[in-house]
């Protein structure tokens, strides 16, 4: 592998998305991550709303939409409040353009698509 001229600092959602897009285009890069556990699947960090024009676009362009669909929750953007008698007072829906996914699931999807050797140091 040629010496990469692009360094990505951080294996969070944005860093991993960028790495996947560069990988798909055959552009050399190296990914640096301070936390050694960043290369391992975990469930820390809560959920993320993935917008159609940004996050979902990067996932699709990275060829990972089918894998994303396995974990995306399109119903998670609905918020309702009832009283103890079952009377509904509030309902707010953002629609299906903002599905949610657990941060750990999104991380694993991207990590599985990034080949060994792209991380500085040992992966895992």
UniProtKB/TrEMBL annotation:
According to the entry, every stretch annotated as the FAD-binding domain falls at: 6-72
**Entries under Pfam families matching the protein:** FAD_binding_3
Instruction: Name the SUPFAM superfamilies on file.
Output: FAD/NAD(P)-binding domain (SSF51905)
Q: In which pathway does it act?
A: Secondary metabolite biosynthesis
Which InterPro entries did the record assign? FAD-bd (IPR002938), FAD/NAD-bd_sf (IPR036188)
Which keywords has UniProt assigned to this entry? FAD, Flavoprotein, Monooxygenase, Oxidoreductase
Name this polypeptide is given: FAD-binding domain-containing protein
Provenance organism: Apiospora hydei
Query: Taxonomically, what lineage is the organism?
Result: Eukaryota, Fungi, Dikarya, Ascomycota, Pezizomycotina
């Amino acid at each position: 592998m040629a010496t990469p001229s692009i360094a990505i600092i951080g294996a969070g959602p944005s860093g991993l998305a960028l790495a996947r897009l560069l990988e798909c285009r055959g552009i050399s890069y190296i990914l640096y991550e301070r936390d050694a556990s960043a290369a391992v699947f975990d469930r820390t960090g809560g959920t993320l709303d993935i917008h159609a024009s940004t996050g979902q676009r990067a996932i699709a362009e990275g060829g990972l939409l089918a894998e994303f669909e396995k974990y995306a929750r399109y119903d998670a953007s609905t918020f309702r409040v009832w009283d103890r008698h079952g009377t509904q007072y509030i309902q707010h829906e953002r629609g299906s353009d903002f599905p949610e996914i657990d941060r750990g699931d999104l991380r694993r999807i991207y990590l599985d698509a990034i080949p060994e050797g792209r991380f500085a140091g040992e992966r895992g």
